[in-house]
Amino acid sequence: MTTHEPVPPDDSYLKAVIERTANAVAEAEPPTSPHDGSDTDTRAEVERWIQAHGSDLLTLSHALHADPEEGFDEHRSVQRVVGLLGQHGHEPEVGLAGLPTAFRATSGSSGPHVAVLAEYDALPGIGHGCGHNIICAGGVGGFLASAGVAERLGGRISLVGTPAEEGGGGKETLARQGVFDDVDAVVMVHPFSHDIATHPFLGRRQVEIVFHGVAAHASAQPFMGRNALDAAVATYQGIAALRQHLPSTDRVHGIFTDGGARPNVVPDRAALQFYLRSAEPAPLKDLARRIEAVARGAAEMTGCGVELVWDEQPAYLPIRHNEALAARWASHQRTRGRTALPRGVVPESLTGSTDLGNLSFRMPAIHPMIGLDGDGLSLHTVEFADAAGSASGDRAVEDAALGLAMTTVDYLADAKLREAVHAEFDAAGGPLDVPSFFA
């Protein structure tokens, strides 16, 4: 047997990015808000709740971290949240839109309605390598710390548990079933390597490309076959050639999922799966068109049939951030000793995708990033999972809870802020018919 070890990647580019980012962070100014937000007494009440019950949130975060569950199977995680909500007088509805691990709790009966979102699914093999234990505990804290003032402020605050962000698109499923129809704005937070008020995320589509050929004996009668694997290889190479002509924020990455059964049989079936990502909805749609053209060209070239199966799980749109609401988040993070940076400080090409983007084209939304300690921390790694369960992760839970609660009550208390939030959303194009966009 001959073996050859893989060549370690050159990390000089990543180190240079980290250094440039550190320099930019030192010079950047956080976004500021011209709006007053809630009154002093309301803010003090929120702060007192966090001080009195922060340990409950950390207990929840640690329990989720120690017992990770993958998307659509987060039953124990949900029961832990339900238990904590029950201790504080809330009985959530569990099981929404046909999703057993979705839930909702609401405080207040009428008026403007803000939803605080919680994610709690983990990754296979590395647990909470995306820090969803922090997202969940911070969101629960944001709801509980603000729920007591919702009625007094003339509004409603909901906590919505959204399963399977990691590829399952739980938020889109909930939205299509009307869960967010009466919600005016949504807020959530995500752990990261830096504090950022409005870091962009890419839209994402999935496609399975299946080629159908004609089987034949690969030695005796190869001329009687039509090689589906050749078509798949040509597609992979065609997409590789396409990459040099894409914008820097676009991404296409894929794998072979079927390449035939035996070398002496011309493969009559071969398949690939690709993810497509882009920073804007329209270019994402165009990228899909170009990928489809490559696949159909490969089929024509090899004499094979081709089937393209798009988005078995919901497509993700990029995030349309609401700067007016994000500035309120940034102002509250300053009181916690954090500088929530504006867009562009951390390179926009170093990002992924989230189903929060789908909600952000239906209503105003924020998805700020809250930093954990550790230079160069990368999402979806064991190192990030370790950080999410550390003292740094604990601090992020409490800071996230306070930031979400304060931003939520600001929205309910300040009519001028609400006007600015929705004027910005309308100026960006208003609501998008998400289900039909990629049809």
Query: Strand order, biggest sheet?
Result: 1-2-4-3-5-11
CATH superfamily of the largest domain: Zn peptidases
Which topology of the largest domain does CATH recognise? Aminopeptidase
Helix/strand-derived category reads alpha/beta
What count of structural domains?
Answer: 2
> What is the overall shape?
elongated
CATH architect. name of the largest domain: 3-Layer(aba) Sandwich
Secondary-structure element pattern, one letter each:
HHHEEEHEHEEEHEEHEHHEEHHHH
Contiguous uncertain segments of 5+ residues:
none
Q: Strand portion, in percent?
A: 15-25%
Q: How far apart are the termini? A: 50 Å
Helix content: 40-55%
The tally of beta strands, per DSSP, is 12
User: Tally the helices: what do you get?
Assistant: 13
Kindly provide the name of the CATH class of the largest domain: Alpha Beta
Mean pLDDT: 95
Note down, in words, how this protein is organized:
With 439 residues, the chain is of the alpha/beta class. The chain folds into 2 domains: 13-201 and 319-437, 3-Layer(aba) Sandwich (Aminopeptidase), CATH 3.40.630.10; 203-310, Alpha-Beta Plaits (2-Layer Sandwich). It has helices spanning 12-27, 40-66, 75-87, 132-147, 170-176, 228-242, 281-302, 323-334, 356-360, 382-388, 391-413, 415-427, 434-437, and strands spanning 93-96, 99-107, 113-118, 156-161, 185-187, 190-192, 203-212, 251-258, 269-278, 305-310, 365-366, 369-371. The strands form 3 sheets. The chain has a 6-stranded mixed beta sheet with strand order 1-2-4-3-5-11. A 4-stranded antiparallel beta sheet has the order 8-9-7-10, with helices on one face. A hairpin with a 2-residue loop joins strand 1 (93-96) and strand 2 (99-107). Helix 2 (40-66) runs antiparallel to helix 3 and helix 2 (40-66) runs antiparallel to helix 4. The model has no long low-confidence stretch (mean pLDDT 95). Belongs to the peptidase M20A family. Residues 20-42 are annotated as: Disordered.
